[in-house]
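Look at one record.

>
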Amino acid sequence: MDGIQLEIMWSNMISIVSEQARALQRTAFSPIVREAGDLATALFDADARMVAQAITGTPGHINSLGAAARNIIKVIPPEQLVPGDVLITNDPWLSAGHFFDITILTPIFRADRLIGYCGSTIHHTDIGGYGVGAGARDIHEEGLWIPVMKLYDGGRPNQSLHDIIRRNVRTPDSIFGDLAAQVSSGKIGGERLNMMCDRYDLDDIEQLANEVIQRSEQATREEIRKLQAGTYHGETSFDVPGGEIITLKTAVTIDTEAGDIIIDFDGSSPPSKSGINVVTAYTHAYSSFAIRSVLNPDLPNNAGSLAPIKVKSPDNCIINAQYPSPVNARHVVGMYVPFPILKALAPILPERVMAEGSGAVWTVQVQGRDKNGTPFTSSMFNYSGGTGARASKPGLSATCYPTGVSAVAIEVLEASIPIAFTAKELVRGSGGHGQQNGGDGQRISFRMRSEQDWLLNAIPSRLRLAAEGLNGGEPGACGSFQINGQEADEARKIAMAADDEVVMITPGGGGIGAPATV
């Protein structure tokens, strides 16, 4: 394919997936999608290979969406699809790792011939069950499990499935509003792809997809072959709700002959009894994101650039959750996956890696009744600590690597639910000192305006084990989670009194290089 022609059509594809993402954010009900960008949109070819993705989104959704599309068409193959079909699932082992993330896949037809798919994954406000927390004892306590099904069949709603969803969630209007946003986003993507085919007189996108994927894979393997071959080891430890200590170990093998990177998590912690276990698609998503961050971040993220990155983990491992492990708070462990990988690569890529950061975002969900007795369930909202220092720059404050999800503005939350924030400020100096300092954490406190008892699901981490510095850099400060001034650290949902105040002090990131002495 001519290089100029390819670049023009590639720009068109990026415009399509970006418009999908913008449409989804504009019309979503959930603040975490609308304001924070906790979503992913992507375009797939007829074989369900991810060809292009929007820049907006989090790696845990983007890279696992690539796996989800392939898994979905194994259950409902292309020969069973007709125009107007829309497929759905939130199966943790087939998609993004927990029930709250619902994946929608829309087949794209051209003259009654399937030419591709538009896909999206977003975090929904509620899915019934336990809520966003780590307290469930198995997967079946965590909410509604939607197998791979048709949400729309030939353009007609699957009424039985719609009724099942509506009766099993606390906020059905919000769920169906967000599902409608996803369906509309996929419809827009399909229309725009057909318009592009009209413009360039294409019957399908097979040749274009092959060019993009093959070139991306070749470029990634060429970057890998520039590295020093060998096996490198990394390890990180951190505490999670309830005081449990988790250790992730990696052996990163650079195979310059094949152009592969193999990441083996053998020796990592066993499964947890709480809902922080991670499915392999989510583990692979953050593993590949760590590699892409330091290897070739400017290349397109698609099936080709992800193909050379392979992940292994034993069955009895916290990042290879087996049924019926609880997984609703899987991000608490999954967002630490990049750190041992970066530590392993530090000896051969010292100028590209960063020190350990605060790790997972601190997620909060509140449930209760407002002053009028109307029930409310908040969408999950997040707060970040500091990132680790970079080789030539300090870490970022109140910013989470690796998720990339923004915090929902407190004004938006106060307008959406009966909550009042009493503090939101940086904790200066909480990042570890070094030649480059780690990013600072933040202090956030709030009360509820409901005048009634309410329920709190909160998932802090790094309350005991700080983010380590790199190459002599000092560790960041640990976090603190307080209720009415008293330290709290529980994995379960907490019953709160009407006037209780919650204070969260998120951790700082580690520094790089020994700090200068005076």
In short: The two ends are 61 Å apart (CA to CA). The chain has a mean pLDDT of 94.
